[in-house]
Specification:
By secondary structure, the protein is an alpha+beta fold. The chain is built from eight helices and ten strands. It folds into two domains: about 80 residues; about 210 residues, PPM-type phosphatase domain (Phosphatase 2c, domain 1, 4-Layer Sandwich). Helix 2 packs antiparallel against helix 3 and helix 7 runs antiparallel to helix 8.
Length: about 325
């Protein structure tokens, strides 16, 4: 079968499934129980009015009222009653959802202001970031903070869950990172204090994985703490080094301790930091192999290669990719 015909069939199948989903979906599911009950009663009233019109009686099998004019009047009034009640319920639900959407839009705008709008240029490095929330707002957080001594803090976190609750917790982590970094806390102390804060002030079912890194821009040396996050990867000319976990996710145990690890970005090498939304959106089993192939394909189009791996059919989470490339060593002999 030609690929074009197969693609058209797949599109038609997706469209049919979508319309069937709309037809069978219970639109009252997210209403309050009282509203759902009133809506169903209104539907029953309308159904009863239609049945009475066909049976020509309001209390069948007895033919009452005998006057067809009165029957017609009662049927119309019953149907209009059910229609007006259901219309009032649906209108109130529409207003509620409109207000919720407005709140989500405002929250998304606020979340954008919390993330770096424009990444500062790092001499000797090229940096790209891709962020795609699954809903209006997401639970992924990333930040790039300039530090004294020609150093840069790279931070990324993934809060459990999705939507508004996850976004609020991500904003909380962002504020903590900014305040603690300004207080010149080390990476281990930074992760430990954020962990204690989450344990004390967030619900027990909420936690966050995170990676905090300090890059020495002169030497390419990295110091990192990985709190149960997907292992960042350092890609060299012929090697790929994962920077595995040095502690558990934050928010699980208040007495958790975090160790620091070290790594090195060679000239021409890459540092890839990402959230699990990326790997979960890549079909197949060998996701690491596909990431490695995307990194090795074309240095100029590396971010495009990574984004091309994302399959919308598997995408059910926020996606954040932070890609850092160390440019080639300067030609010292020319100076």
């Amino acid at each position: 079968m030609p690929s074009r015909i197969r693609l058209e069939i797949e599109k038609s199948t997706v469209l049919i499934r979508r319309w069937l989903g709309y037809a069978l979906y219970d639109w009252t599911f997210k209403m309050a129980k009282s509203k759902r009950l009133v809506t169903r009663v209104a539907i029953l009233i309308q159904g009863y009015a239609i049945w009475a019109g066909f049976s020509r009686s309001l209390i069948w099998p007895l033919m009452w009222p005998k006057s067809q004019y009165l029957l017609f009047l009662f049927v119309c009034l019953l149907y209009l009653l059910g229609d007006r009640v259901m219309n009032a319920i649906l209108t109130s639900e529409f207003v509620r959802k409109t207000q919720l959407e407005a709140d989500q839009i405002a929250a998304r705008q606020i979340q954008k202001t919390l993330q770096p709008e424009k990444l500062e240029e790092l001499v000797g490095y090229e940096m790209e970031v891709f962020y795609q929330p699954y809903r209006a707002v997401g639970g992924d957080y990333f930040d790039v903070i300039d530090l004294p001594g020609n150093r840069t803090l790279l931070a990324i976190a993934d809060v459990s869950g999705k939507g508004m609750a996850a976004a609020l917790l991500a904003a909380n982590i962002q504020a903590l990172v900014r305040s603690l970094v300004n207080a010149q806390a080390g990476l281990q102390a930074l992760a430990g204090q954020i962990n204690k804060h989450l344990c004390h002030y967030t619900p027990s079912n909420r936690f966050a994985t995170a990676v905090f890194m300090v890059l020495n821009r002169d030497s390419g040396d990295l110091i990192f703490v990985n709190a149960g996050h997907n292992a960042p990867m350092v890609y060299g000319e012929s090697s790929a080094t994962p920077l595995g976990a040095t502690g558990i996710p934050m928010g699980l145990r208040s007495n958790a301790e975090y160790e620091a690890g070290t790594a090195f970005i060679p000239f021409g090498g890459f540092l890839l930091i990402f959230t699990d939304g990326l790997t979960d959106s890549i079909p197949g089993n060998d996701t690491e192999g596909r990431l490695r192939d995307a990194m090795a394909d074309n240095p100029v189009k590396t971010m495009s290669n990574l984004k091309s791996l994302i399959d919308p059919r598997f995408n059910e989470d926020d996606i954040t990719i932070l890609l850092l490339r160390r440019t080639e060593a300067p030609n010292l002999s020319a100076q």
